[in-house]
Each structure stands twice: as C-alpha cells, then as structure tokens.
Amino acid sequence: MSRIIAGAAGGARLAPVKGPHTRPTTDRVKEALFSRLETYDVLAGARVLDLFAGSGALGLEAASRGAAEVTLVDRDRAALRSCEANRAALERAGSPARITVAASPVLPFLRHRATSGPWDLVFLDPPYDLPEAELSEILETLAGTLADDAVLVAERSARSPEPAWGSSLERFAHRAYGETALWFVEPVCGD
C-alpha cells in the first residue's frame, strides 16, 4: 500500500486504484522525486496539477509537503474513487492544502481550464502506452498554463523515447529508476 512519505500528513496510507490500468509510482521513485523537488524549492505554497492522477499519490505528497493548492485530474472511475478517498484521508491527517478532484480526460481539462493556472508544479504520469503524438499535444497545451518558473515532471517508461517538448518547454534534468524515467522540464523563458 502506498503512503504519504513526509510533511503534514506523513505516514497517511493511500487507497490504491483497483483496476488493471494503473501503474503506481513506487515509494522509492517518489522519495527520489520529492527530494529533488525540495532542492528546487518548488513545493512551498505551490499550485500543483497532477494529470493522470491515479490514486493522487504525487499531488497529495506535494500537498503534505506544503503546496497550497492541488488539482488531481483523471477520467477513470476507480481512480477518481481513490483520489476522493485519499483527499479525505489527507484532510483528516491535517493537510492544510486545498485539494480538488476533477473527473475529466486530460486534454479537455487543459483546454477548458487553462485559466485556472498558472501552475507552479505539474506531474504528468500518463499510461506508458499513450501515443507520443497525444503526449505532444498535451505538452503543447500544458505549456500555456505554466507559471514562468514552473517545474513539470513527466513520468514515462525508461524504454520510451524522450518526449517532444516543443518550442515552449525544455528539459533540464532526467533520471531513471529501473523501469521508470523522470523528465524534469521548465518553460522556455521569453526575451
């Protein structure tokens, strides 16, 4: 069972998603990811968007560690039930973050909710079999919703090619942990 690792709700257990279509981020990867994010000083007071949220583990970890607002987005009913249960568990554990669960496919959410940004931190953890063209379209749409100093973390299979970031995003770091690859991305600064 997954858990919140640190912060206001540290140790809180998270309800898993019941179903065959979810690939949870392991605690080992989550610990490494959040250690890196803390060095970037991006968590405190952040507006966080967790796309393809699954159980919401990444967004909720950010909430526990000081994010001000977290939006969990998924379209799968089992994932949404887990997100709602886990949001309630975090609230009971004392997390002060405002946590919202949005039932929507990612691309329509981004197109219709673009004004709800700018996002300071985005987790993008799509199914590994998501076609690269669809991922590119999501990244292109997402780029216009980010704060100038935002960090985007894309989780993919270590066997997948590097995503096409387009002209508005650029990779600044990459880490692999077994089958999981994390790509750290930021908006391209305008002149």
TrEMBL record:
Keywords: Methyltransferase, Transferase. InterPro entries: DNA_methylase_N6_adenine_CS (IPR002052), RNA_MeTrfase_RsmD (IPR004398), SAM-dependent_MTases_sf (IPR029063). CDD domains: AdoMet_MTases. Pfam families: Cons_hypoth95. Its EC number is 2.1.1.171. It comes from the Bacteria. The keyword Secreted does not apply. One of its GO terms (molecular function) is 16S rRNA (guanine(966)-N(2))-methyltransferase activity. This is 16S rRNA (Guanine(966)-N(2))-methyltransferase RsmD.
